[in-house]
Amino acid sequence: MCSEKIGNQSIKRLLVGIYPIITLKRGRERSVLHKHPWVFSGAVYQCEPAADGDIVTVKDINDNVLGYGFYAPHSQIIVKMFEFSAVYTDYYSVDYWQKKIYNALQLRNTYVINDQTNTYRLIHAEGDGMPGVIADVYAGTVVLNLLTKGVENICSQLTEALANLGFNNIYLKVKGISHEKEKIVSESAWLKGKSEMPVMAKENVLKFWIDIEKGQKTGFFIDQREHRRMLQMLCKGKTVLNTFSYTGGFSVYAIQGEAASVVSVDISKDAIQKCEENIALNFTNHSHHIAIAEDCFEYLKKCDTKYDIVILDPPAFAKNARSVPNACRGYKELNMLGIKACNAKGLIFTFSCSQNIDKRLFQQIVFSAAADVGRHVRIIAHLCQPADHPVNIYHPESEYLKGLLLYVD
Ligand code: SAH
User: Fold this and answer.
1) Which of 192, 191, 4 is CA-nearest to residue 93?
2) Residue 98: is its pLDDT beyond 60?
3) Ligand 1 — pocket residues by CB below 6 A?
4) Pairs from 70-73 (Cβ < 8 Å, separation ≥ 24)
5) pLDDT of residue 12
6) What is the best residue among 224, 243, 266 to mutate for testing ligand 1's pocket, by most ligand atoms within 8 Å of CB?
7) Which atom of ligand 1 lies nearest, measured to the CA of 271?
8) What pTM was estimated for this model as a whole?
């Protein structure tokens, strides 16, 4: 065993000796051999009795061990793999998960964390070989999202591993997360330490108040960091419209980049208030910023001003495969409105964070919006998620954020 500390599950495994075995149908081992972490229920030949969330051994039909994963009997994805080796060890140990988190932290240390930025995603689920686990860090405070029963079962090991790596304030955030076909069992809570709310975090020198307890998702949309920076570089002397502004991420960068004026629009009054607070936190003179609590579609429909730069960063319109057609219509309408609101020689940053809409489909939607408006639109950059949201090459589904930077004649 790797760890001196042995939890209940580990004792159970020691007594039983093995993890329950899931045997795959002939030929269905191929995707696992290619390190794709999802095993679909249709691929399973035989299952030993196992409970929801148990760690299971995955074998091919010839009894070869392919790896280990979390069992989810009620889901179409019946196993989410976290280990692609035949090595038999204690997968419930703190050590095992600590090594994975340390690995993830090394990537962030190399490419993201520096004296100007202490806001980053530490664990990006399958992107870091830890399906079901999301961990965002704000000035040392970790916000943990556990998306499956399997990773809920190892919550104490993850907490201990994070603490061993120097994270002393860890918050489990459950609100807004629904496990597939099952009730949420745990509630949001401080697992270790407690930070005063809101946390003040730094991103590219700029400061943000982040309320991890009450804010949306883990408190902030870290995935837009590089695009906010791009905006800062491009906006000097320009008028900027930041739709779906949330707490003003893009707006703060636009002011830093000396935009002529900035308008932030979000449907949430609370987000708009936080947006104003974030601007006040960074700048003493911000008279050329206006924050409006309104539906962005309504705002854009009646908007008779045109802007040099328009940002369209809506929430995911397609939450599942069934909602894709409606979502496509939503994205098209939004992009048409955005293109109409853009000055000649202007720029549009347009995004979709729907996992079910891939970059090709998104580009087609934007093409169709441009064609209907009848303006000449050129793509000048393809935008994607940053280094702390890595895409596991064996799991292209971990790529969710896509965007286009458009030049509108
Ligand atoms: N760009 C932001 C993140 C946007 S998240 C950033 O960089 O931080 C999406 C935001 O859209 C949320 O704040 C949510 O309140 C807002 N929203 C959702 N539907 C909306 C609508 N119809 N009109 C305006 N805002 C909306």
Assistant:
1) 4
2) yes
3) 216, 221, 224, 244-246, 249-250, 266-268, 271, 295-297, 313-315
4) 70/131, 70/132, 70/148, 70/149, 70/150, 70/151, 71/20, 71/22, 71/150, 72/148, 72/149, 72/150, 72/180, 73/47
5) 52
6) 266
7) 13
8) 0.93
| Atom 20 in ligand 1: residue holding the nearest Cα | 267
> In the block, which residue shows the tokens 């995955």?
58
Phi/psi for 204 (5° steps) reads 45, 50
Give the angle subtended at the CA of 163 by the CAs of 158 and 164, to the nearest 5°: 100
Task: Give 286's pLDDT tier (boundaries 50, 70, 90).
Answer: confident
CA of 165 to the centre of ligand 1 (A): 34
* Ligand 1 atom index nearest CA of 224: 7
Residue 387 has pLDDT above 50, yes or no: yes
The answer to whether 168 and 250 have CB atoms below 8 angstroms apart is no
CA of 179 to the centre of ligand 1 (A): 23
Q: What is the 3-state secondary structure (H, E, C) of 243-269?
A: ECCCCCHHHHHHHHCCCCEEEEEECCH
Alpha-carbon distance of 164 to 96, in angstroms, equals 13
Nearest CA to ligand 1 atom 6: 249
User: What spacing in Å lies between the alpha carbon of 62 and ligand 1's midpoint?
Assistant: 51
How far is residue 91 from each of residues 7, 71, 97, 257, 271, measured CA to CA in Å? 11, 13, 8, 48, 41
User: Residue 11: pLDDT above 90?
Assistant: no
| Atom 10 in ligand 1: residue holding the nearest Cα | 244
List the beta bridge partners of residue 146.
Answer: 133
Residue 162 and residue 149: Cα distance in Å, rounded? 19
Is residue 279 helix, strand or coil?
helix
Q: Both tokens of residue 142?
A: 């970790």
Residue with tokens 């597939």: 180
pLDDT at 186: 67
Contacts of 126 (CB under 8 A, 6+ apart): 37, 80, 392, 395, 397, 398
